[in-house]
UniProtKB/TrEMBL annotation:
This is O-fucosyltransferase family protein. GO terms for biological process: fucose metabolic process. The chain crosses the membrane at residues 20-41. It comes from Pyrus ussuriensis x Pyrus communis. Residues 531-544, 564-576 have a biased composition (Acidic residues). Belongs to the glycosyltransferase GT106 family. Keywords: Carbohydrate metabolism, Fucose metabolism, Glycosyltransferase, Membrane, Transferase, Transmembrane, Transmembrane helix. It comes from the Eukaryota. InterPro entries: FucosylTrfase_pln (IPR024709), GDP-Fuc_O-FucTrfase (IPR019378).
Length: 576
């Protein structure tokens, strides 16, 4: 090897020998520093938990659960930041109620025939009777008859002795409809004696032709006919002018009496004094309703025994698969499920809630999870004195009327059921400006509630918002003709003449998509069409344990009239 190469090699060797101690010292110092950081710095798990707790849409991880690799579902106290207004419908300003008669609708004097009188006896609680009154006006118009002020149901389970004029302003009712139907307070005397009308019943959803073929011949012969059990006895689809007449009756002619309105306004004012906005929740969770529905909520043998004992009242009722109604979305949400749905939709614990409810199965224990989520929890009993409510206590329909008004005046109306009050208020709120009305997509939410413990809160909330598209009371949420007319009065809702280009595109975002899809619409229809996937309805507003909607027999395939003839007691129990 040449001498100069050996000399260079020795040079590098001596340099490296002097650098080696320095490199070792630096490496040792770095190792010591790294060890100190491991001891003094928080663990990655603690940092992760801290980050999660700093977010409003988070899922906290319990130490034991983390060690086991499990996700713990925990609900945040806040509603989170969403790109929408929680208290209004996005495009509501482009729609308005329109129920004036067309020029083709003849004046009452041109069509009313002399000596032709129609009387009706309503059935059920306040809202079921309201549908009967509305349809009775239209039926009188179809028959070219004078209408006798309807008789309210005073004999069913509710046993409310109130007559029409004690709940509704009868003079306003008669004068407002004076150009549509001639209305009299009672039948004229015949031969100096009280005129007793012939009584009969018509099939459910009876069409114009049905009335002309079944009732008109009797009316022509007897001159006065009373239709009994008059609830849902008129077809859902009628011609435009008759549908608009329905709206004039329901949304304008039927006004509650002054004492009811004054007390209800006090309740609304007291809610407004507590908060700028409030939610009204119509909570149906009575023992009888749950028993008849056949719904099972996981309460074990105690629940099966208690509801089973109530269920024995109905000899024709057989529940073979108690889980099936829940899977199909035919059961009301539990109070806790309502609370989770609202929190996922963006309503935080600071929101004030007015609850219209009767006897809740399980009492305070059942309500506790909802109250924990929304501690600002009120009812008419908590914001009014006993002395103020005393004139109403003995009258279930008048108490129901108070709740009706407070719910109607709310910024957001929420229901856990698909009963009469839910339907009527949904239609009314559409007609008067599409105020937000949240009705649960029970079928989809049921499966989500079952699996919530296996997902993060963010995933749960996102799914809730997606599933609730089409169930929020937005304009054009439901196609014309879908659902009952009282809940979707499409004929009476007109679009503003302003160019559509000025409108915000699509409804508010509740999930990943902006648009109401055909699938969403079909889902809404499936859960809201009469005779399909509704849960039992005791006319949501009379809050006593007992009666159930006679319409449920149709939904379960049982002939209502036949059952009533076999079980007279059932007729009263199912009258609401």
């Amino acid at each position: 090897m040449p001498f100069h190469f050996q000399r260079r090699r020795l040079h590098y060797y001596h340099r490296f020998r002097f650098l080696l101690p320095l490199i070792s010292a630096i490496s040792g110092a770095l190792l010591i520093l790294f060890a100190l950081l491991l001891v003094l710095a928080p663990s990655p798990l603690d940092v992760n938990n801290q980050l999660r707790h700093s977010s409003k849409f988070n899922v906290a991880m319990d130490d034991d659960a983390v060690a086991a690799g499990l996700t713990v579902f925990r609900v945040p106290s806040g509603g989170g930041r969403l790109d929408r207004d929680l208290w209004s419908s996005r495009n509501s300003k482009f729609y308005y109620g329109c129920s004036n008669a067309t020029k083709k609708f003849p004046d009452v004097d041109e069509i009313t025939r002399p000596n032709r009188y129609l009387a009706i006896a309503t059935s059920g609680g306040l809202n079921q009777q309201r549908t009967g009154i509305t349809d009775a006006v239209v039926a009188a118009r179809i028959l070219n008859a004078s209408l006798v002020v309807p008789k309210l149901d005073q004999k069913s389970f509710w046993k409310d002795a109130s007559n029409f004029s004690e709940i509704f302003d009868v003079d306003w009712f008669m004068s407002f409809l004076s150009k549509d139907v001639k209305i009299i307070k009672q039948l004229p005397r015949k031969g100096g004696k009280m005129w007793t009308p012939s009584t009969m019943r018509v099939p459910r959803k009876c069409s114009e032709r049905c009335y002309q073929n079944r009732v008109l011949p009797v009316l022509l012969k007897r001159h006065a006919v009373q239709l009994n059990k008059f609830d849902y006895r008129l077809a859902n689809r009628l011609n435009t002018d008759l549908q608009k007449l329905r709206c004039r009756v329901n949304y304008h002619a039927l006004k509650f009496t002054d004492p009811i309105q004054k007390m209800a306004k006090k309740l609304v004012h007291r809610m407004r004094m507590r908060s700028k906005h409030y939610i009204a929740l119509h909570l149906r969770y009575e023992p009888d309703m749950l028993a008849f529905s056949g719904c099972y909520y996981g309460g074990g043998d105690k629940e099966r025994k208690e509801l089973g004992a109530i269920r024995k009242r109905w000899k024709t009722l057989h529940i073979s698969n108690p889980d099936k109604p829940r899977r199909h979305g035919r059961c009301p949400l539990t109070p806790e499920e309502v609370g989770l749905m609202l929190r996922a939709l963006g309503y935080g614990s600071d929101v004030h809630i007015y609850v219209a409810s009767g006897e809740v199965y399980g009492g305070e224990e059942t309500l506790a999870p909802l109250k924990a989520l929304f501690p600002n929890f009120y009812s008419k009993e908590t914001i009014a004195t006993k002395e103020e409510l005393e004139p109403f206590y003995s009258f279930s329909s008048r108490m129901a009327a108070l709740d009706f008004i407070v719910c109607d005046e709310s910024d957001v109306f929420v229901t856990n059921n698909n009963g009469n009050m839910a339907k009527i208020l949904a239609g009314r709120r559409r007609y008067f400006g599409h105020k937000p009305t949240i009705r649960p997509n029970a079928k989809k939410l049921y499966h989500l509630f079952l699996s919530k413990e296996n997902m993060t809160w963010g995933a749960f909330a996102s799914n809730v918002r997606t599933y609730q598209r089409g169930f929020m009371g937005e304009p054009n949420e439901v196609r014309p003709g879908r659902g009952g007319f009282h809940e979707n009065p499409y004929t009476c809702i007109c679009e503003d003449s302003q160019p559509k280009a000025k409108r915000d595109v699509g409804p508010r975002k509740y999930g990943k998509s902006n648009n109401i899809t055909r699938k969403d619409e079909v889902e809404f229809h499936a859960q809201n069409m009469e005779g399909d996937s509704e849960w039992p309805d005791t006319d949501e507003d009379e809050y006593e344990s007992g009666p159930l909607d006679n319409d449920l027999l149709n939904r379960t395939g049982v002939d209502y009239d036949a059952v009533n003839s076999e079980e007279p007691e059932l007729e009263e129990m199912l009258s609401d």
